[in-house]
């Protein structure tokens, strides 16, 4: 039997030491595997947290954009409303609401062209010119001045 290695049995104490060493190596390997698994789990958790943060940031940006859009829309409506109000003030009839809203006693004292029904006819409307009385009926201070002048 030349060339075939002969296995010799190790003495009992050496055999126990070898088994102990194998067990220790197996335990070390198990611990290393557990550590690797823990590290992988930690990495996965960190990645999940980062993804959640990114999603939250995106949602926050969407909310901000929507809020700004709504604010611009509100501002635009307000601006449009102000513009209409200014336009109404500019184009409002100078003989309209102020002259018609006078009390009946004032219109009786100061007859204006609006108090007559003649102003509704087209021919009368074309020839209508504001008189001192109609101007005075629109302004309280002018009305007072007109009454003082008429009594003198």
Element pattern in H and E: HHHHHH
How many domain regions?
Answer: 2
The percentage of residues in β strands lies in: under 5%
User: Largest sheet, described in full?
Assistant: none
Please describe what this structure looks like.
With 152 residues, the protein is mainly α. The chain folds into 2 domains: 15-92; 97-151, no CATH class. The protein is 75% helix and 0% strand. It is built from 6 helices and no strands. The chain has helices spanning 12-91, 97-100, 104-109, 122-126, 132-138, 140-151. α5 (132-138) crosses α6. It is rod-shaped. Residues 1-122 are annotated as: Disordered. Residues 16-60 have a biased composition (Acidic residues). Residues 98-108 have a biased composition (Low complexity).
Features:
rod-shaped, mainly alpha, 2 domains, 152 residues
In short:
Residues 1-122 are annotated as: Disordered. With 152 residues, the protein is an all-alpha fold.
Write the layout of secondary structure elements.
Layout: H1 12-91, H2 97-100, H3 104-109, H4 122-126, H5 132-138, H6 140-151
């Amino acid at each position: 039997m030349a060339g075939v290695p002969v296995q010799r049995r190790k003495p009992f104490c050496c055999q126990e030491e070898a088994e102990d060493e194998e067990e220790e190596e197996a335990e070390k390997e198990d611990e290393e595997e557990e550590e690797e698994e823990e590290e992988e789990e930690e990495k996965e958790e960190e990645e999940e947290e980062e993804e959640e943060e990114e999603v939250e940031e995106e949602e926050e940006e969407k909310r901000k954009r929507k809020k700004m859009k709504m604010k611009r829309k509100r501002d635009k409506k307000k601006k449009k409303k102000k513009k209409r109000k200014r336009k109404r003030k500019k184009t409002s009839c100078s003989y309209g609401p102020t002259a018609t809203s006078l009390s009946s006693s004032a219109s009786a004292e100061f007859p204006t062209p609006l108090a007559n029904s003649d102003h509704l006819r087209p021919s009368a409307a074309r020839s209508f010119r504001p008189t001192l009385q109609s101007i005075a009926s629109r302004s309280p201070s002018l009305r007072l001045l007109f009454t003082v002048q008429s009594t003198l």
